[in-house]
Write a structure and sequence with these properties.
Strands 1, 2, 3, 4 and 5 form a five-stranded antiparallel sheet that branches. The two termini are 15 Å apart. This protein has 283 residues and is of the alpha+beta class. α1 crosses α4, α5 crosses α6 and α7 packs across α8. 48% of the residues lie in helices and 18% in strands. It is flat, with a radius of gyration of 26 Å.
């Protein structure tokens, strides 16, 4: 198994800073036709065979031209419209469109633009540095902190990549008959986690039934690795040493604004600390 390596330089820091600038861009109203990268606020109404369809109507809907959150034909028809402008057009939904009721169908839209705004990126100055948490606004300090954060993320991804490959080798080398009850329990836990995630995103579960069979392969993998790792821990007398756990907790905490508070929080939560101990054992 090869461990990936990446040398970070000014180019990676510059690229990250540009992403951070784009995330903090602000918009100002303009009295001109909408162009690429502008933010548009609009009302629209869509009909199929003269009948309004679910999801085809919105008021004060906001989108940025070029970010591809809307269908290309929709964005193309918003281009060139100023505030107060309207346009009627047809478009065909892709056959693989996520909305199954309209996939592959042709719809007519009425689009009314209410506001056009131009984006402005913040200057690379002391104020920008302060927005990233550098209190004195020093640009050199800002670049150093950004580089440190990138290095931490790269190290984390490289570690995850190697870990996944190691786990796959363990799975390939160890054939075991899995207890059906354990697989079913793990599958249900994955289903519950998926439901909780959907609910946290504001989705109604009853409208989105979840098929447990989707999670069975992942459940089988997790149960297999759990049994294999538990046996290796037993056979080799492995244990998560307190200093290793502490180092892992502190490393995780470094990505937060108040690392010391995060460390205290982890150690005050037995369940959270147990999760870290499991990670250390896997490592």
């Amino acid at each position: 198994i090869e461990r990936p390596a990446l040398t970070l330089g000014d180019a990676e820091v510059d690229k990250t800073l540009e992403i951070l600038r784009k995330q903090r861009q602000h918009f100002h109203p303009v009295e001109r036709p909408a162009a690429a990268a502008d933010r548009v606020t609009a009302d629209f109404l869509g009909k199929i065979d003269g009948v309004e369809f679910v999801g085809g109507k919105a008021s004060d809907f906001v989108f940025v031209l070029g970010e591809k959150h809307m269908l290309p034909e929709f964005e193309a028809n918003a281009l060139g419209l100023a505030a107060g402008g309207t346009r009627t057009f047809d478009l065909t939904f892709p056959a693989d469109y996520h909305g199954k009721d309209v996939a592959g169908k042709r719809a007519s839209f009425e689009l009314s633009v209410k506001l056009v705004e131009e984006g402005h990126l913040p200057e690379m100055d002391a104020e920008f540095a302060q927005s990233l948490g550098v209190e004195d606004g020093d640009l050199a300090t800002m670049r150093a902190e950004v580089k440190t954060n990138i290095e931490r993320e790269v190290k984390k991804r490289a570690h995850t990549d190697v870990k996944n490959k190691v786990m796959q080798v363990l799975l390939d080398a160890t054939r075991i008959e899995l207890p059906k009850a354990l697989v079913e329990m793990e599958t249900q836990q994955l289903v519950q986690a998926a439901r909780a995630d959907l609910e946290a995103r504001g989705m109604k579960i009853e409208q989105m039934p979840i098929n447990p069979e989707m999670f069975e392969p992942q459940a089988r993998r997790r149960v297999s690795l759990g049994l294999i790792i538990a046996e290796m821990v037993r056979a080799h007398g492995l244990a998560a040493k307190p200093e290793q756990v502490r180092a892992t907790v502190q490393e995780q905490a470094e990505s937060y604004e108040q690392p010391d508070e995060v460390v205290k929080w982890v150690y005050s939560q037995p369940q959270r600390l147990a999760e870290v101990e499991s990670l250390v054992l896997e490592d």
